[in-house]
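haha ok so turns out i had the wrong file open the whole time. this is the CORRECT one, sorry everyone. sequence first:
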Amino acid sequence: MSYNDYFGKNVTNISTEVSNTFVRKVMLNMIGGLLVTTLVPIYVFFINQGLMYTLAKYLNIVALGEIVLVFVLTLGLKKMSSGTARLLFYIYALMNGILLSSLTFIFQPVSILYTLVVTIIMFVVIGIYGYTTKEDLTKYGNFLTTGLITIIIISLINFFVKAPMLYWIGTILGVVIFSALIAFDINRIKGIASDMVGNDEETMKKLGIIGALNLYLDFINLFLYLLRIFGKKRD
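then structure:
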């Protein structure tokens, strides 16, 4: 069962109370994951810089582990318990925190903090729109998928040609696409409430975890693209 299978929807007679409760649980899981990810760079930069240099030797292994973990979580969600899904999500957030710790080698901490604040503000504003709009944003799924593929292609091309124009085209497109995905995913998560009646609590907990993972990834990717714009590199 894929992500789209879980979040495919037909919004009818949505209970506001049920919808609010479910979205709140999804958001709490996402925020928990972001806190775990944020605390890792804070710890290694301000408290244990020696650990930061040690972790830097294993970033490729961590990145590979993240990819495997996402596949396990998304493809194996149906068979695992909600507790296992939640544990894997937080392990992923921890591993991502290790990867993002490397940003402290590249960017000034103040610019990272500034970008984080901008990302939070954008996420809240866009998220509110995605939740309150009466429009079904899932109809834009194909456009967003096309945008993601375009970003990947631009990134691959620029990896070889190193063209500044392609870099900035990819950056702006990344900000636009992941901003749109925030509204898209929140709108889609809200739509799950239309199918909640009759589903067991365990299933809904697992849906909440996969929803939190997608919002988490939207936030992280938006942050990284904004950091390209606002980040000031170390001398």
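Residues 120 and 219 are 8 Å apart (CA to CA).
again sry for the mixup
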